[in-house]
Amino acid sequence: MLQAGIVGLPNVGKSTLFNALTRTRKAESANYPFCTIDPNVGVVQVPDARLEPLRVIAKTEKVIPAAIEFVDIAGLVAGASKGEGLGNKFLANIREVDAIVHVVRCFEDEDIVHNMGSIDPLRDIEVINTELVLADLASLDSQKEKAVKKVRGGDKEAAENLALIERLLPHLNENKPAVTLPVTDDEREVLKRLCLLSAKKVLYACNVAENDLADPSSNPYVAAVEGYAREHHEAGICVISAAVEAELIDFNPVEAAEYLESLGVKDSGVSLLIRAAYDLLGLASYFTAGEKEVRAWTFHKGMKAPQCAGVIHTDFEKGFIKAEVVSYDALIAAGSVAAAREAGKYRLEGKDYEFADGDVALFRFNN
Fold first, then answer.
1. CA atoms of 119 and 105, how far apart (whole Å)
2. φ, ψ for residue 355 (rounded to 5)?
3. Which tens digits make up the pLDDT trace of 66-106?
4. To which H or E segment does residue 202 belong?
5. What is the DSSP secondary-structure string of 9-74?
6. What are 354's strand-pairing partners?
7. Pairing of strands 3-7, 236-240
8. N or C, which end of the chain is more exposed by having fewer CB within 10 Å?
9. What is the pTM of this model?
10. Residue 249 in contact with residue 318, Cβ under 8 Å?
11. Whole-number Å distance between alpha carbons of 133 and 21
């Protein structure tokens, strides 16, 4: 299962957000730096409004959503790449995740200490980006030395690594993260081998006060982060209120809906963040729907039909014959499986079919 790591400076709301995501109080949350030391890991269901209509059509009571893992990582401070604070531990933990949810404090509160003395989200973002870039520069210097030796011996993979390292070093030296370097498809595979921290995709989570949740665009800090993400980092952005989400942990669905309505919002910021992280990881969902259960299966965007079958069981991929597929929209519009079949909305797809988000599928395979 792919992991999204929650990172940020101390006291920006990471652990509070993690607890809200996992609907637990697993992560310690306190008004002092480094209250998180060892990373907390939680499996989170991906909210998907399509599951309930499918459940009704399938006439079943069992629904299984898709899921991803979130990791609450210790707060980082300037100098982490040189071991300041919990820097070495932080960098080791972030190296293990597949994408980054970067929590940025966008609210004023005199009772919650900011470790840098003031609220400035762009400065905070740059602190972490700089530390990731510095760590990557140190890593590439070491990798370059090894690659040079291997290239002399005719190692083709080392030559590919070295060519990209030579492009990356000046880019990183301008304090630009590796994820913003334009690369070819072949170079993208090489980039994965280099295991760089700043090459990971990023989603900025703007943590706002509950009063800003209904109209986050009026918050100048949020506007600044939106501009930065758009112009400098090719990153995603969402707005959450960790404090509000912490309140929702103990509410039942009706109470939660009433509380959110009182704040002028319909959806939980956490729900939006989970879906955004799912997309950031390059994931999508297809469905199986029958009397036994309705289930969302996670696949990587771009996967073909046999690979998607293999998500259910490796035997499905090995013995793949055809996939019987109908789009979610077509099935819902028809109102039933029978009606969708009569309307010719079901298709038989072969090995070259690329699955789309929302496909409802039944696989035919040899045992």
1. 7
2. -65, 145
3. 999 998 887 665 554 455 444 456 778 888 899 999 999 99
4. strand 201-207
5. STTSSHHHHHHHHHTS--S---SSTTS--SPEEEEEE---TTHHHHHHHHT-S-EE--EEEEEE--
6. 304
7. unpaired
8. C
9. 0.84
10. no
11. 28
